[in-house]
Specification:
Keywords: Glycosyltransferase, Transferase. By secondary structure, the chain is of the alpha/beta class. The protein has 17 helices and 17 strands. Helix content is 40%, strand content 17%. The structure holds GDP-alpha-D-glucose (GDG).
Amino acid sequence: VVPTTKTRTPRRVLVVANRLPIRARRDARTARWTFDTAPGGLATALRGIATDVEFVWVGWLGADVPPAERPRVAERLMREHGCYPVFLDAQLVDRYYNGFCNDVLWPLFHYVPLPAYQAGAEKKFDARLWEAYKEANARFADAVLEVWSAGPPTENDSTATSKVPDYVWVHDYHLMRLPLELRRRDARVSVAWFLHTPFPSSEIYRILPYRRELLEGLLHADLVGFHTYDYARHFLSACSRVLDVSTTTPKGIEFGGRFCSIGVFPIGIDPTLIRNTLKSRAVRRRTAELGATFKGRKVLIGVDRLDYIKGMPHKLLAFELFLARNPSWVGKVTLIQVGVPTRTDVAEYQALAKHVNELVGRINGVYGTLEYSPIHYINQSIPQDELIAIYHLADACLVTSVRDGMNLVSHEYVAAQESLDQDDTGIEETRPRSRASSSKDDDDVLQPFVKEGPGALVLSEFAGSAQSLSGAIRVNPWNTDELARAIHDALTLTRVERELRWAKLHRYVSTNTASYWARSFVDEFRDVCEHPPLLPKL
Ligand code: GDG
């Protein structure tokens, strides 16, 4: 089904997320603040509909701002960047963000609760972290209400759309109490919430001592949204089991005299941005350079934050097994693995980084030579242009998450497999040549890189994207044997097989885009607010 977009939208949407898309620095000598935009995935996703909707961001700045400087910082951020900061002091951030969000909710929502045999597991849920979470959510509510407008027409602005009040779109597991906190402050607020992670099975969810309070927080929203039907279903069953709800239907839940609608909105990417980047002169040149570097070899790509949900050790172990079983591939295939450091002050993440380093060292030690490393491990973030050049070059992408809300790397890889028009190569030398057909004579000349058909996608069945990317080779990353075979399959599929798979994948990725996601969510939000379901009279 090709998605269609409606065009009715509210005038202003307050996007509330834990972090503002801003990098802030303070000069200690002059006490002067510098703010740069740091657009993350969400900011990029919303850009596509920013022509119809005005977005104002509310969130934490990621920096400790001395109280005396706060009014000035808030005024500047709002005026210069359309961002309204929530100020949280260091101890609150530590307990709310590092503690409750990253150490309690993140693992639980990704099916990694602390194993009961581990000493200290019984102390996992520290009440101080929960109190901090509630407190932080209350601070966010105060900040939202400082910018929220109920939207009565003003003298200067009498257009019909300006009568629409601001809508409040809350993002992610950091802010599950926010709908309730907002409604306590003003019952008129239209509020929706979207979860970027999985919502776990109710069997996992109900471990949480604060299971009831979080669901009650959310059910004050007009709409809650998830990436997949499974997550929505898990949420519905958690509500039925944990709360005394009067009605749950696939469309939503009646609770406390209100109806909270539930929707499924799988996020996507901006394929046009990738296509345009691929066509740029700089990226074509870079792809050609990399094509020359990896000449005569197949390339596998992995791009992950260094997070335990991404299953990087699972991928490395399977790659090692693949090399052990297929000695003829040694020297002929390289895995480029980007592992972007994240939450580096947390013990679990430090242990993961160490484990990955050891695995990479072991595999390169056993299978590497002076001329060849089976794994190129890049333990830092790389520029977007470089990333897209590698995607384009790679013969297969390995996504092996043990759980992942959606996983946008899988979408980006598919988009970057488009073959490019050879008329405009972007580099001076125009004689196209594929990596495999290189000859010694033209080694010194930079040749444009030409793909021999699209690459293959190996995709964990535990990533949300596996539910829609049916052209992928689906794997259970815990099954090392199966994953090693999938790597072999990905490298040996015929061109026709790869093209057939890619056509399916590309059709999905190029229609279910980030703009489509944002537009569908905002349209549904408006629909449920304008036409709230009628509740039965008691
Ligand atoms: C959360 C959920 C859900 C990565 N390394 C570099 C780089 N990246 C970019 C990728 C991609 C993004 O980061 C990662 O997105 P994912 O979706 O794969 O994963 P999370 O960061 O865990 O995001 C996830 C998502 O929210 C959206 O709802 O899909 O399930 O966990 O865009 O390209 N970008 C650059 N250099 C890098 O080194 N430039």
